[in-house]
Amino acid sequence: SEFGSLAVDPVTLKRWAEFGNRYDLCCPEDQVSACLSKGYGTFPRGTGPLLVTQGASGPRRKHMKDPFRVWSPGTEARYLSPIESARLMGFESFRWPRELTLQQRLA
Prior knowledge:
The chain is of the alpha+beta class and about 110 residues long. The chain contains three helices and three strands, in the order H-E-E-E-H-H. It is globular, with a radius of gyration of 14 Å.
C-alpha cells in the first residue's frame, strides 16, 4: 500500500530518540503540526510531522506551544502522503505528473 511505503523504520525512530532528539509526532485529531521542508520523506527529524499509527503518549495538541508527544518503544509512525501534504497546504485537487517518484512528490 502507499501508506506502507511511508512508514518510518522503528529502529531509526529508536536510535534518534536515544540521542535525546524529538519528533513532531502527530495524531489524526491534532490541530497543529510543524511545517514541511524540502527534506521531508528522507529524514524523520526536523523536516515535518510524522503521523502516529500506533503508540505515543501526550495530550491532543491545539497550539504549537503545547508539548511534543513523547516517543516510546512500540510507537509506529509514517510520513504524510503527498496528497495529505498538499491538502494541508490548501491544494485540494492537486495532481503530480506521473513520472515523479514518491520521494520527489514528498519533497
